[in-house]
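ARCHIVE CARD
Drawer: 12
Card no.: 0347
Subject: one protein chain, sequence and derived structure
Cross-reference: see card 0346
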Amino acid sequence: MAECLTLKKSNCKNCYKCIRHCPVKSIRFSGNQAHIIGNECILCGHCFVVCPQNAKEIVDETEKARVLIQSGAPVYVSLAPSFIANYDGIGIGGMRKALKKLGFADVEETAIGATIVKAEYERMLAEDDRDVIISSCCHSVNLLIQKYFPAELHCLADILSPMQAHCADIRRRHPDARTVFIGPCVAKKDEAQHYTGLVDAVLTFEELSRWLESAHVQLEPDMDDTEESRARFFPTAGGILKTMREDIPGAEKYTRMAIDGVDNCIAALRDIESGKIHHCFIEMSACVGSCIGGPVMEKYHPSPVSDYVAVAHYAGAEDFPVEQPDPLSIRKVFEPIERRNVTPSEAEIRDALRRMGKTKPEDELNCGSCGYNTCREKAIAICHGKAEVSMCLPFLKDKAESFSDCIVNNTPNGLIVLNESLEVQQINTAACRMLNLRSQADVLGDPVIRILDPAPFLKVLETHRDLRDARAYLAEYKRYVEQTIVADAASHLLVCILRDVTDEETEREKKESISRQTVEIADRVVDKQMRIVQEIASLLGETAAETKIALTKLKESISDE
């Protein structure tokens, strides 16, 4: 089913927005990527609409349509009546001219098929004995019932959709024709693939617009004015009911109502399931506002009021002239589609909750940040392999905070966080110990001047330059510290890191004292040695003089002889 929607993996950012908006939670997260679960998806297109990263893509069938045209067979377009809302001021004539330039044989309004379907609904109201009848025009609604409410399949009108009825009518009138449907819906691509032989390709308005642009084909205003176009109301909420006659013999037993939006459809189906609704004909549309609120319209043309006005002004008061086929020829068989999800045991659910940090009922916040409405739903999704424990943001936040607190409170360095008013916002255990504080509460919210000199902090604020490893003596605490102050502009906070270097400073001073003493001793030794040397030299000088005198006298005495 979900082959109509693909994922651009590089774009998925784990925001879980697609899960939050998926009415049936048919998205699986693994490897930090979103994956659409085909057998659970109803192709409502909500994930495509809401994805902020445009990670969801509708499969483009433009090339398929080109190949059909190149085949040589006449290719007819069935154009959804919501086109008038998507292409402002362009009527069927203008669309026909433009599409013929692309190579199509002709263009007709799907509203012709809607007229056929509407007539069959009227016949059912007159002749059918079912308690509740649900329209089957919306393929997403059909998938919803087939997958999630199979017991109510008997309520689903077993009739072709307007797209199928119109393409079948085209093929009846032109036996060699191929057909392409163009509209605002993703689900129609799946409907065409599942019920083969009627629709050869399906394009969205977005695909058509890109094709027209690449072919340099301009749309020209060409509005027709015919009253035989009441079925153009079909793409609006309650549009089917607007086209149906009020005076259908035998239909007075049915209360007619229109329900749009998947959530409202699910609520109605639950009421039908529980036996609260009887004798009703219900027009159901998965999109809010019906087809004019289709995923392509909602993403690229979100103008529900002006879109309705455009459709209402374009629709006439009479039916399209059609040849009503045999009822049996437009019958449609709906079968249950198995989702293959086994309900996990209570023990498995409790284990998943425990892994999410939900050990007590009060731990189950049911915040919905993961995309699931309750923690229990998330736990069941984990058991089914659709979700990961890490998707629980409160769990990750608590885990991160716990880890952060563990680091902050066990680091030997003091940490102080101030706001721009220099008020203490946070202080760790090490800083309390350095500053002789009994507890963190003693100083939280107080000006920093109570515990530290504010001058360095003011300088960082004024200069926007961080202070790194500035050594200071805290006389009040008799401590030496290395102070680092960093300004976080994003959070408007100052972070101060204090490293106690008192022991280092004491050791340094001790070494300096020893060095000074050593130098003094060395000086004294040198002085003493110099004195000794001088004394020795003096003694040597006296001895030498006496020796010289003695030798001189001896020399003289020898000479006299």
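Annotation on reverse: The first strand starts at residue 5 and ends at 7. The chain has a mean pLDDT of 89.
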